[in-house]
């Protein structure tokens, strides 16, 4: 007795039409595949009519939705939103990953940045901070504590910031030194990096604060580097008066005297452009005259002699440290607020008040 006839094969195009309709890949393709499948099914007696019809129906609905989306702009909005999201993710970084020259925003402002994500932004627009460099802490095994890390970070970041913005007069008034340092927890997993930055104490920074060898010419650098050292050494004045710590005070006065002498010599040695020669020579002469008072302070064997030269030493320093020479060299000629009134000491606001542990 003969067996039952073999079952008809399921048409492959019908299966493809159904799958295409379900997953909405190229919606019109499902209708094309479904139409071809129906024709072959009729000719070959194959199965799959239901799948082909379902695929055509689903593809038709998908095609209508695509047309409606294009007509109303919905797809464009979705596409734009996806691009914005991808762009936002690509610009989001941890403070661990920030690199020199990058400008960034912090969602909660600079004081809330911590180790949270920040967003890299164009330095030309408003931003919370700009990275000036980073360094790795060495010489410690176990966590040394904030009392050891903070002074190191403050000192090294001040140096990196000075190298990043050689002309301090061109730095915005609301920019101060800021840094991200390891925390006890991050130290335990190997974090030894300190990231240094200029950050907005209030409002925002606009435009890069960077001015170094990438933007300054050789004459500007030759002027700024030695003159900057004068301001730096003046800030090293001991907190204790000479009556309480004569050794530290006379050592500091000796350092100032040596810095003034070295600066004057370097200014005289450089081949300046013609317009800058006289103002630079005048500045060198003023520095040399002031140096004599600082040398007398350094040689003082008693507090009275030290104080006798203290005010004359400061008064002999050019109050603007060479604004005429700056103008001749094309540098900023407007001193920072209070520059002429500064009398040494340490800028507490530049470090410990602007730090964060990562």
TrEMBL record:
The protein's name in its UniProt record: DUF4190 domain-containing protein
UniProt xrefs under Pfam families: DUF4190, Septum_form
Family annotation (InterPro entries): DUF4190, Septum_form
Organism: Streptomyces lavendulocolor
Membrane spanning stretches: 12-38, 50-71
Segments forming domain Septum formation-related: 100-196
Biased composition (Low complexity): 339-358
Lineage start: Bacteria, Bacillati, Actinomycetota, Actinomycetes, Kitasatosporales
Residues covered by region (Disordered): 326-358
Domain DUF4190: 13-67
Record keywords, A-Z: Membrane, Transmembrane, Transmembrane helix
